[in-house]
Design goal:
Helix-turn-helix domain-containing protein; WH-like_DNA-bd_sf; WH_DNA-bd_sf; elongated; transcription; Arc Repressor Mutant, subunit A; DNA-binding; alpha+beta; about 120 residues; three-stranded antiparallel sheet
Amino acid sequence: MSEPLDPAMFHDPDCEDRAQPIRVGGKWTAMVLRCLEDGQPRRFSELRVPLHRITPKVLTETLRTMERNGFLARTEYEENPPRVEYALTELGRSLIGPLDTACSWARAHGPEIVEAREAYRA
């Protein structure tokens, strides 16, 4: 049994949504990558815990796009009730290093990005 995902894993005041200048895939792809980076397959309901700000429809679309792009594998189990799990593929895992680098850069420069965006609006 895998450890449950932390509901607050994306509550980082130093890395606000508005300061994320780098995006991999869709808007939520990087967060799904983070949820799956420990190598444990996760069910949709498990992913919803830390990704509570995403509607189920958008999460479904994100997972389908990531599967289509080869970033994750979807495994269906013929059980009652049916069970589906998602796990990163090797291609998806290869994005973790660049994602770590992008997150470090965003943390270091987040205040500058926010300041520039606020100055632009003014």
